[in-house]
Each structure stands twice: as C-alpha cells, then as structure tokens.
Amino acid sequence: MTTIYRCLSAGLMVLAISVLPNIAAAETADKYTLRYRFKVGEVLRWEVEHRAKTDTTIEGDSQTADTLSKSVKAWRVQRLGADGSATFEHTVEWIEMRQRLTGREEVCYDSRTDKEPPTVFQQVAKSVGVPLSVVTVDPQGKVLERVRTKARPKNQSEGEITIPLPEEPVAVGHVWSFIHDVSVPLNTGGIRKVKTQQRFKLAGVKTGVATIEVSNHLLTPIDDPKLESQLLQRQSSGTVKFDIDAGRVLSQRMELDKRVVGFSGPTSSIHYATRFSERLLPPTSKVATRPTGR
Fold first, then answer.
1. Prediction pTM value
2. Using CA atoms, how far apart are residues 270 and 58, in angstroms rounded to an integer?
3. CA distances from 76 to 92, 148, 277 (A)
4. In this predicted structure, which of 114-123, 139-148, 184-193, 194-203 has the lowest mean pLDDT?
5. Which long-range contacts (CB under 8 A, 24 or more apart) does 174-179 make?
6. Strand pairing of 2-9 and 191-206?
7. Measuring CA to CA, how many Å separate 101 from each of 57, 62, 64, 107, 273?
8. Tens digit of pLDDT for each residue in 112-129?
C-alpha cells in the first residue's frame, strides 16, 4: 500500500512517497496517491489568463462587457509543518488588463510598463507586486488558514486557491466531491443559502501526470431567474493536469457558456461566457515588476 512519510534532506522538509513490499502491491495496483509537495524557500509561479464576455439585454437595450486579464501569480513557501502542511505567501507579480464596454473606448493597463493605471483598474493595481495573503494548506490542498493582508481590496475574492485531492489512493475513474453553501443576497435584503457541489474525477494518468476533470453544479433547485443569474459563475467545468511526483498543478482550464432568460423582466436575458487557464512556469522564469516611480 502506498503511504506518505516525511524526511529531512539538506535542511529541507519534503513529502516523499514510499512503496511497501510487493506482498501488498496488488492491493493498490493502478492506484495513485495525489498529494501537494513543497520545499521551504521555493517559489512557484503560474501564468494566468481569464477571459469573460457578458451580453445583457433589458427592455430591448443590449450591452456587452468584454474583459481580459493576464497575470503571473506566485507562491513563496515559508515553512512546512510537522503534519505535512505548507505555508506560503501569495502574490500577483504583474497583471495586464483590458476592458471593452458597449459605446466606450477600450481601457487597457499593464503593470509592467504603465506608471499610472486607468481609474477602473486603480484598486487592482494597488494589489500587484505586494503580498496578498498568507495561506496554509495540508497535503490534500485543504486550506487550514488564510490571512489576508491590507493590500488585498476588501471586495476582491481570492476564490479557490487549490484543487482538493482525495484522501485515499485512487484509480482512474474515481470520483470525489465537496458540498458548499453559497450565500446569495436577495432584493428584499435577505440572504438565501444555495448548495453547490464541486465534482472531481481522475480521468487518466500518463507519464506521471494525472488528468482531473472538474465540474461545478447547483444542488438547490432554482426557479428564480434573477437568483440563477447571480450563480452563473459557479457552474464552470474543465480539466486540471497534476504532476504526481512533483506534487503540484501543471495547468488547468475552466470554461462556462450559459444564458439566463427573464432575470430582469420577461424579455431580459444575460449570456455569460468565460475561460480561465493557468500553466506552471519553469523555476528560472524571469518576472517583470511594476515600473519605478509608482
């Protein structure tokens, strides 16, 4: 049976995988133990891209919002716990943003070259190049603690920072899931609790890389289009590539294309299409910082 043990090497605590004698090998044939692995002092960087387009029609008036953001996020590993947990500092090292609204000129900002951001991007610009949070996760990706810094805007959500992994060794085809309660504000001033489900499936393993299919679903029946429109962004699906030996996400891609009719009157509609992707950068990647004079 595959187990996890901890060892000390050159002053760095790492998570390692040990295979027990062949007498038990048959019990876990074609099963994989998925765990995050970190080293103190290492910096992991991912290039992130998020595209979103929203087409809204209310009383015959149509508006389109088209946005694109590219960035590099970094995790700087500060320490490892005796339980295998890792604490890292989360930073966005640079960001490039574009926004196009119906009837307006496109607005652009690149933190690597622009000294002053447009008004619409000022709050985001303040959070670039500075620590946003300090996060502690266990080897399965469960967030044990997340401390936000003052640099993160109050209305900016960090979202899901890790992909949760199964507790036990799993074979291709295995499914694991998590239930979440989401609070949705109502026009009356109240709050409605909605249950959502994150579903994960180990779709395949090739040359040490696991392909994980991810989908998000609403479990609570929704019969109010306005409420449904507020939950659009929680219904994406996609795939994640996870390096089993290195213990980290290599890439992920999530997409959503959904329309809701009647959210603000019988003839109203909203069409939301988005694509989110990220890929792990080589350790030697150079990262541009914000220009001087800011």
1. 0.83
2. 9
3. 11, 15, 21
4. 184-193
5. 174/201, 174/202, 175/199, 175/200, 175/201, 176/200, 179/219
6. unpaired
7. 14, 11, 6, 9, 15
8. 999 999 999 999 999 999
